[in-house]
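Record pair follows.
FIRST:
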Amino acid sequence: MILLSNIQGGTELVTDSESVEKTLSIIELISSGGLAGQVIIALLFVLLIGVIYIYFERLFAIKAASNVDSNFMNQIKDHVSNGKIDSAQMLCAQVNTPVSRLINKGITRIGKPLEDINTAIENAGRLELYGLEKNVSVLATISSIAPMIGFLGTVIGMILSIFEIANSGGQIDIKQLSDGLYTAMTTTVAGLIVGIVAYTAYNHLVVRTDKVVYQMESNSLEFLDHLNEPI
C-alpha cells in the first residue's frame, strides 16, 4: 500500500512494505554450488572426518605413552643395584609405556659394554618414535592438499561462470551464473577450513610427541648413568 501526503508544501512517498532481508544457510549455500561444488565439498568433508579421527586417536595414544610414574626410575635403579634383573623386567612389563620398553631393552643388555646397551636403546627408541608418529604425516598431507582441492573448485566455478557468459547470447542467466560463483567461493572456504584444522592438529601432535621423546631420552640417560656409576 502506497500513500501520498503533503508535508510543508512537499509531497512524500510513504510505503508500508518493509525490506526483506534474505538469509542463506550453509546447506542452501552448498546446494546452490551445483554438482561440481557438492562433490568437492563432500570430499573435503571426508578429509575433515579423517583429520578429526586421526587427531583424537593419536592424542589419546600419546597421552597414554607419556603417563609414567615419577617413581618408576627409582624402582628400576633399586632392582638393578640389588641384582634383581627379573623384578626390573617385570616392572617394565607392568608399566608398558615407551619409556619402560626402552629401559627393558637396556636391562636385557646388562653385562655387555655400555656402548652396546646405548645402541640397543637408541634402536628401540626409533621404533617407539615411529609408533608415536603413526598417521601424523597424513595430517600434514591433508593440510596441504585441502586448500588445493578448494582452489580446484574455485577454478571449476569460474569456468562454469565464464561458460554461461560466453553462451548467453547477450541474455545472461543470473541463476546459472550465480551457481558457478557459489561453487568458486564455497569450495575455497571449505578447503581453507579443512587445511587450517589439519595444520593445527598436526602441529599440536608434533609438540606432544616431542615431549614424549624428551621423556624417553631423559629416562634412558638416567638409566645409562646408573649403569656407569662405580660399584
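SECOND:
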Amino acid sequence: MKPAPTLSTAFLHPAGQSLPEPLLALRKQRGTALVDMPLPTRKTENWKYSSKYLKLTDDMAISLPADGKTGSGLAVPGYKVAFLNGVMMPEACEYPDLDGISIKSFGDLSDEEASDLADRLDSTLDNKAVQMARLNSARFEDGLLIRLKPDAVLDQPLFIVHEVTAEASGSAFPRIFVDAGRHSQITLVEEYISSGSAQVMVNTVTEFNVADGANITSIRLNMEGENVQHIGSTGVLQQRSSRFESHTVGFGGPLRRHDLQVRLEGEGAECKLNGVVVTQGKQHYDNHTTIEHVAAHCNSEETYRNIAADQSHAVFNGRIHIHQDAQKSNADMNNKNLLLSNGAEIDTKPELEIYADDVKCAHGATIGQLDEISLFYLVSRGIGRRQANVLLTMAFINELVEQIPVEAVRETVQGRLNHFFEQTFQEA
C-alpha cells in the first residue's frame, strides 16, 4: 500500500524572526507538532473533492519577500491596513484615531500583549477539521491584532488588503485576531489580491472573539490570480446576545478553499452567513462551513450560492450542530447552485446534527441550469440571448450581492461579475 503523503519539512522553517518571544515560541511549538503531518487525500472526508488540487511543492515553502510597494486594493476613503506577502506595511495604512480601539501588528506588541495573544490564538478553530490552519500557526511572520474595548464603535469599515506579489514561487501566511469587547461594533473587509504569475500559496487565518452584545460584520473578497492557491480559515466564538454577520464572495482559481467555523456559546447569540462563488475554466472553489449551537435560544441563518461554468468545479459543505443544551435553537441553511455548462460540476452536502428536542431547523440544496422557458420568454421580447443569460444568472445571486453592506465592495463585485459574464456568455 502506498504511504499517505506528508507535509514536506521545507514548510517547517519560517523565515521571519521579528516577532515578540511569546509568539516565536508558539510558532516553534506549532511547527514541531506538524512533523510528519499527513496531507489531505480523497479519503480525508472534508477534503475529498479538493485534495487533488492541492499542490505543495518545496519551492512554495519559501516565504515571499515583503520588500515592495502595495497596490491600491479597494480605492475607498476610510480606514485601511495593508499586508504585502503576509507582512504589514505601516506606510500604506490609515488607522482610526478613536478611543477604545487598538490596531497593532504582531511585531509591535509588548511581551505581555504577545503572551496574552499566544494563549488565545487558535482558540476559535477546531484544528482537527481545518488541518491547514495549523500550518499558518507554524509559519506566520506577522499579523494584526484588533482590540475593541466595551462599547467601542468603529464609525467606518476597516479595509484589510492582503496583496501577494508572485514574482517567484513561495508562500504567505496572513493572520488576524479580532477581540471585540462587550457591546462593541466593527465592520471588517478582507480583500485578497495578487500580481505576478509564479505559482504561490496563500494560507490565511482570521479569528473573531465576540463578547456579550458585540456586533461584528465580516466581508471577505477573494480576487487573486489564476496562479494562486488560497487556503483560508475563519473562526468565530460568540457570547451572549452577540451578532456575527458574514459576507463571502469568491472567484475561482487553481484551488480556493475557505473553512468558516462559528460557535454560539452564549444564549441569544445570532449569526448570518452569506456566500457567493463563481468559477470558470478549470477553476475550483470549496466552501466548508460549520455552525455549533452550544447554548439555548440562538439563531443562525446561512445562504450560499454557487455558479460554475466551463469545466470548473464548486463545492459547498455546510454543517449545523445543535448540542444537547441548545434548546429553542433556530437554524436555517440554504444552498442553491447553477451549472452554466455540461462540463461544470458542483457538489453540495448540507448537514444537520441535532441532539436537542425543542428546536426549529431546516436545510435544503438545489442544483440546476438556466431555465429554457425563462430564456425563451426574454428572447421573444427582443432581448439578446447573451443578455438574457446574464440577466437570469445575475438574478440568481443578486439577492446576496445586494445585502453586502459596503457600497465599495458591491461595486467591485459587480465589476468582476461583469467580467465573468463577458467571458462566459457569447452573443448568439
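COMMENT: The mean pLDDT is 93.
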